[in-house]
Amino acid sequence: TQVHYIAVIAGDGIGKEVTPVAQQVLEYAIQGVAKFEFTPFDLGAERYLRDGAILPDDELEALKSYDAILLGAIGDPRIQAGILERGLLLKLRFAFDQYVNLRPSKLYKGVTSPLSKPGDIDFVVVREGTEGLYCGAGGSVRKGTPAEVATEVSINTAYGVERVVRYAFDLAMKRRKHITLVHKKNVLVNAGDMWQRIVARVGEEYPEVTHDYCHIDAATIYMVTEPSRFDVILTDNLFGDILTDEAGAVVGGVGYSASGCINASGEFPSMFEPIHGSAPDIAGRGIANPTAAVLSAAMMLRHLGYDEIAQRIEAAVEADIEQLGSTPRSTEQVGRDIIARLA
Ligand code: IPM
Ligand code: MN
């Protein structure tokens, strides 16, 4: 049998509680077909507080050889904001060239949306993951003086944009065949125009896929007034960050939101993580909902080529939410319930 080597960064807070459930579901679902070998990596807040290490070079190098990375959550109120985000999460996304940040949103039966007229919400945001304002290009001069100047430069390369645009079109072909490019081309004229031209050019190769365009500010309105209009939303790194938090909220909270940071060329491992954070307020009590972690694990399966098994897990999760979504359950109980449905 084929063995898949998975690096596990459970991380902090509820990440440590939901990730083992995702692993159990994976192991159960793959049996008889292949095997997973999980290797834990001690990275995150605890490690940083213990020995000051965030992501040492040798561990980054070691991670490179895995087939995928399963990540729980990173973050701790004792650590200054930005240190682990940039030093661990963003470093992994950039080092492993995870240029597609894939974030599906679906309103499940049994979940209450805060929208009065939610309609059928089922779209996926394809967020560019390695460029834009996240590059860290820019700087500050005369810091702390009244003459201080701070710049953040958004880097958009034709190469980087084209590859994520192609990914979005390929994905649209497997869905309802519609792409909405979200940008702010009326103000960010250089990057916006380039994104638009690349979408138009690549779109010619996909005559079945329709595409339209929406400014980011208008997109945030449509997301609450008419989210069913979206199928594939294609956007840059920062717009995608903001829009996917809103997307999580309209489908009833980020507790159901999975994500994949994907190196679609296959050169480096891709990373799968729930969108929610480490939730220190409920950590340690065994009550965190592992649904998003399980759905992220299903995304990992799909990435590894197990489409059918991924679908089975998603169906089990969907049924679980519909029937038991509003019943208070422990983290482990939700895992057992999902596995029982797979049986
Ligand atoms: C996310 C997070 C990260 C991001 C932070 C923690 C750096 O908000 O995954 O959406 O901005 O990408
Ligand atoms: Mn975010």
UniProtKB/TrEMBL annotation:
Catalysed reaction, written as an equation: (2R,3S)-3-isopropylmalate + NAD(+) = 4-methyl-2-oxopentanoate + CO2 + NADH
Site feature Important for catalysis, where: Y134, K184
Keyword Cytoplasm: yes
GO molecular function, one term: metal ion binding
Family affiliation: Belongs to the isocitrate and isopropylmalate dehydrogenases family. LeuB type 2 subfamily.
Subunit structure: Homodimer.
Protein name as catalogued: 3-isopropylmalate dehydrogenase
Organism (species): Galliscardovia ingluviei
